């Protein structure tokens, strides 16, 4: 900003006052960028950016598993932003030769923000154990008690209940042979949703041993549902409280044996319902699962596949909730696919619940952004 001022050389008080007024105007114009207003302006942006990158990381790792590529997790361990405001000014004198002088006043303010983001790799023994350890049954019932749909929780997280299988071969890399015998389990999930919603199936704790117990009450209004559940599980229909364990070698009519999946197994299970480009199938980059007749299997028929689906596109999808580029194509969750978004949210909550306590091991990568 340049401004000509005609004043006697001795008018320093006048000049100082002018400087003060100009700098006051500059500072008042920047007030909205500092203090509480600065926090309001930057906090939502950083929050949104971190959530978006975490979501993209989850989708990317699921797609990696579909291609049998190694997964890797980075955690945003720290975000720091420095707000900087600098002022500079100058006063220049030139003489007109007639007893008067011209003073040239320059004033400049500069505002900048310097964010620094630190990333930490999630690895090491504790993290690996948390990814490979079966999720506790109590955690599943806690999720259901908090409002999660029982069919979604059990359909994704449970591999087997008594003699009913939920695609156990899907807990690892994509199998070449389609899972069988999953229809009874799918029927059990339909019944369990009704039973849990009507509070006729609930988790209890043994008063003495504190071990988990499953209660299936004999409600007259829902007797058909509870009776079919007990028949599917091979339980004694004359009792209402059943022990819960993970022992399958000795089935008992008073016990519900539940085998849960680990976080990694859940991610593998979800990765099978990822659409693949035909070219990648032809080149053998992905496993094509087929049934006993040689027909390509539809993973959307499984308990997890019904609630989760990653789509594929040659170009960037406009209506995507999360989209990532991978191997020359785009993979994404559709923004209007509420079932997939709900299961994706469940996965992120399970990750925080089971792996969130694991400390990152290794050096942190700190990147200053300019």
From TrEMBL:
<feature type="transmembrane region" description="Helical">
    <location>
        <begin position="12"/>
        <end position="29"/>
    </location>
</feature>
<keyword id="KW-1133">Transmembrane helix</keyword>
<keyword id="KW-0472">Membrane</keyword>
<keyword id="KW-0812">Transmembrane</keyword>
<protein>
    <submittedName>
        <fullName>Uncharacterized protein</fullName>
    </submittedName>
</protein>
């Amino acid at each position: 900003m340049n401004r000509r001022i005609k004043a006697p050389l001795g008018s320093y008080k006048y000049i100082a006052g002018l400087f003060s007024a100009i700098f006051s105007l500059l500072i008042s114009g920047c007030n909205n960028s500092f203090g509480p207003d600065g926090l309001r302006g930057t906090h939502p942006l950083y929050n949104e950016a971190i959530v978006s990158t975490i979501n993209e990381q989850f989708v990317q790792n699921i797609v990696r598993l579909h291609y049998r590529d190694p997964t890797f997790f980075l955690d945003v361990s720290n975000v720091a932003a420095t707000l900087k405001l600098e002022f500079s000014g100058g006063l220049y004198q030139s003489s007109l030769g007639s007893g008067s002088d011209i003073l040239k006043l320059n004033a400049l303010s500069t505002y900048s923000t310097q964010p620094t983001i630190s990333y930490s790799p999630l690895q090491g023994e504790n993290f690996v154990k948390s990814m490979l350890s079966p999720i506790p049954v109590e955690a599943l019932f806690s999720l259901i008690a908090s409002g999660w749909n029982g069919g979604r929780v059990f359909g994704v997280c449970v591999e087997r209940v008594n003699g009913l299988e939920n695609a156990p071969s899907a807990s690892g890399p994509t199998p070449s042979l389609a899972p069988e015998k999953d229809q009874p389990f799918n029927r059990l999930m339909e019944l369990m949703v009704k039973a849990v919603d009507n509070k006729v199936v609930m988790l209890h704790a043994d008063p003495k041993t504190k071990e988990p117990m499953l209660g299936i009450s004999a409600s007259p209004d829902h007797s058909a549902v509870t009776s079919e559940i007990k028949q599917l599980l091979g339980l004694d229909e004359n009792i209402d409280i059943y022990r819960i364990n993970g022992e399958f070698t000795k089935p008992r009519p008073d016990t519900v044996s539940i085998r849960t999946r680990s976080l990694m197994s859940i991610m593998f299970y979800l990765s099978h319902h990822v659409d693949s480009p035909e070219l990648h199938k032809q080149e053998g980059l992905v496993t094509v699962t087929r049934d006993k007749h040689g027909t390509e299997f539809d993973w959307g028929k499984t308990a997890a596949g019904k609630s989760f689906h990653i789509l594929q596109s040659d170009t960037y999808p406009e209506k995507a909730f999360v989209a990532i580029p991978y191997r020359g194509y785009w993979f994404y969750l559709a923004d209007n696919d509420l079932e997939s978004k709900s299961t994706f949210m469940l996965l992120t909550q399970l990750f925080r619940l089971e792996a969130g306590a694991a400390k990152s091991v290794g050096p942190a990568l700190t990147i200053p952004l300019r």
